[in-house]
Design a protein that fits this description.
The structure is a homodimer. By secondary structure, the first copy, chain A, is an all-alpha fold. Chain A contains 14 helices and two strands. In chain A, a hairpin with a 2-residue loop joins strand 1 and strand 2.
Chain lengths: ~300, ~300
């Protein structure tokens, strides 16, 4: 399959849904909504929503009713980027080739844009529209899965560990842990949301969870590689930032060549996890391979 | 009834539940959890959880299964205080008589403590334990009600308007709007959560919502009064901060005497809203009166 075409198509589907669900930039709250929309519509690849939809597709589910959940996942991802970029955190001025939220709107407005997007995500997740084709019980399980993945023992905890590790000598096990929380948890939860929506049985859910964990890992390894090998223009964010901050990364531990092998291994493990699925899982397989190819 | 005794008892019930549900300060994430616990266990009055429990009680419901929801409301309130106190926001060094979260743990850790508490709140709200005695559908309605109340067109939006209004000449209608979003929305949602849990019918839900809106208003008016009349030692936060920041407040618009009358009117309206309820609503009535008495 033509994965680039698939990603472009699905990205457009998510983009349209986001435009439909997101608040319009009008009324007394226009400034706040403008800051949220600025970062939300800054050209993200929508990979987490696309993964949720593709996981549901792998289980032969009609994916349209999953769109509010898909949009919520993107709101959560965007909130995490806005907060991570803040001066008190990673202090990044560029994101996706554009000035970051706090550069444009100021620090207070950026903190609140993140807070607003996170709250709005849970409004979408509990949205009555998200009910079609799924039991309220399953919807609750989905909300709980996502909330856990992004909380203290998940994405936020990972960012906290990441900041604490800056300039410290950490071992590889600790790096894996940070990545797992910071990047892996939400990616895995995105795939799991699709699995819950698609009414996967226990085996299918476990397989999709393994897939999610492995592509989360691949994603992070490739991100580390791109930071070393990419240019600021390619990345849309400052290249070489990790090395500048003296951050522990895969290339710093293993060198570029070995890191590429490890990325490939994670992708292969992700594809292997999908053995029990038929051709409907082809998008998931293609996405896994594509993550590796981003850098090759 | 002895409202102080009731509040002390219920505060202890909430405190115990928070201790039970909140993550322990151990393991690799201990620092992050410590920052969350520092603010969560800093001596809050637990008024929002108590309101949720009291609203359920007014509907003759057994309130124990509502405790995860009650704790979630307190996590949300605490997150909002941590973020509001940040240097980029209100820049407050004192809260409940203690140094604020960012003063103790640094700005990045405080932002993440807030983010962690907000995410954890939704984990609690979708917690399987919160299911006892309530349908999954009702639980979803509760999550949606709370998420809406604290999002862009709610608490976060209110904080955004509040910051934008600093040093600006705003009219009273705008002040009411800010208060409604910033303080009223979560207080109302807390009462509504209890109403949903207690299976209130349409009339009961509307009455409890009116009660919530009126005590939210009373709460904010009294808060404005305390900032004028209290001392830093009484308040546990910096007294006179509103005037220093040239903030629009009820006393600034109407003077202290007229503001007291307005607080009393809001409390009376809250009590009147509860006419259709029997003696089980006495705690709600007593809490309304107590809000006014805080300042008298």
């Amino acid at each position: 399959m033509d994965v680039k075409k698939y990603l472009t198509q699905q990205c457009a589907v998510v983009e349209q849904a986001l435009a439909r669900y997101m608040l319009p930039e009008e009324g007394v709250l226009a400034n706040h909504i403008q800051a949220m929309r600025y970062s939300l519509f800054a050209g993200g690849k929508r990979i987490r929503p696309i993964l949720a939809l593709a996981a549901a597709e792998a289980l032969h589910a009609a994916t349209a009713p999953l769109l509010p959940v898909a949009c919520a996942l993107e709101c959560i991802h965007t909130y995490s980027l806005i907060h991570d970029d803040l001066p008190a955190m990673d202090d990044d001025d560029l994101r996706r080739g554009k000035p970051t939220c706090h550069v444009v709107f100021g620090e207070a407005a950026a903190i609140l844009a993140g807070d607003g997007l996170l709250s709005f995500a849970f409004e979408l997740l509990s949205h009555p529209d998200a009910l079609q084709g799924i039991s309220p019980q399953a919807q609750l399980t989905m909300i709980n899965t996502i909330a856990k993945a992004i909380g203290p023992v998940g994405m936020v905890g990972g960012q906290s560990l990441d900041l604490a590790a800056e300039g410290q000598a950490i071992d590889f096990e600790h790096l894996r842990l940070i990545h797992g929380y910071k990047t892996g948890a939400l990616i895995t939860a995105s795939v799991q949301a699709g699995a819950i929506f698609g009414k996967g049985d226990e085996n299918q859910f476990a397989a999709l969870s393994r897939y999610g964990a492995q592509i989360g890992l691949a994603f992070q390894i490739v991100d580390d590689l791109l930071d070393v090998e990419g240019t600021t223009a390619d990345l849309g964010k400052t290249a070489g930032a990790d090395a500048q901050r003296n951050k522990a990364t895969y290339p710093a531990f293993f060198g570029v060549a070995k890191t590429k092998v490890m990325a490939k291994e994670a992708v292969d493990a992700a594809v292997t996890a999908l053995e029990i699925f038929d051709a409907k899982a082809e998008p998931l397989r293609a996405i896994a391979r594509y993550i590796y190819e981003r850098n090759n």
